Every structure is written in structure tokens, then in C-alpha cells.
Amino acid sequence: DENKIWMATYSSLLRADELDLESIDFPALGTGVGGFPLDKAAEVMIKAARDYLRDSNFIKRVGFVLFDDAAFGAFKTALGADNMEV
User: Which contacts qualify for 18-21: CB closer than 8 Å, 24 or more apart?
Assistant: First the structure.
């Protein structure tokens, strides 16, 4: 569900900071076997990343590894085209 995806994203970012990592990449959590809608997963994951990055000590880059055009489109829409790096 939405809360679990937000928590998994946020907790992963917290752990990455604890390990002094500068970057981390995520798949579209919950959208495979879990059947969670791509567009909603994109919104939730990007919100969690933005929430976390406000106070991050080390993380400089968060990426999303997307395997098809539908996933890319959902994340592009949720993030906004101006912030996309291909």
C-alpha cells in the first residue's frame, strides 16, 4: 500500500545516509507482483525522496530504474519534465 511504499523508500534513504552513500537507485516499488498503480507509486516515492532529501547529509542523487515506457512516463509526470535526467 501507499504507506509501505513511502516507508520503504524513506527507510532506504535513511540507510544510504547512514552508510555515507552519495547516490541510490530504486525500482518502482510495489508495481510488479504487488499490483500498485505506477502513477501512484511514482508520486509516493518522489514525495518520500523529496521529504528525506531536505535534511540529508550525504545523498546527492536519487535515481529510479524503470523498465518500460509506462513506468518512465509515470515517474516523468510525477517528477516534472524539468527534473528528468535520461
Answer: 20/58, 21/58, 21/59
